[in-house]
Amino acid sequence: MKPRVILDTNVLVSGLLGGTATEVIRRWRAGAFSLILSEEILAEYEAVLKRPKFRLPSWVVQELLGYIRGNTEWVEPAAQLPIELRDPADTKFLRAVVEGGAEVVITDDKDLQDLKEVQSIRLVPSWESLTLL
Q1: What domains are there in the chain, each with its CATH number?
Q2: Whole-model pTM over 0.85
């Protein structure tokens, strides 16, 4: 069975735009792991990809989002977390992990990495995830 993984927005964007997480995206597209996604996470992916600094035409953003939508396992997180995060915006990733039964959150966000583990789910940087996938 494939590992079930959540990609933090910073990893997804870096990987799609040729950054340090490119190998993570390549492995997802090759079927090495299942990507878990919620509407809340997809909305953040979209908002970030549309930022002017990335200069992505809207049709490119829509193509990327369409691919992501069609190649993920969807969850509707309902779980409340027994921890308080430094950045409350990160809660959506951990709620999706718990609801989706994921094993790993791949993140290059220092606040999430500092947690190391939440309810037996590992939080690892993109470079370290390559040894897991």
Answers
A1: 4-129 (3.40.50.1010)
A2: yes
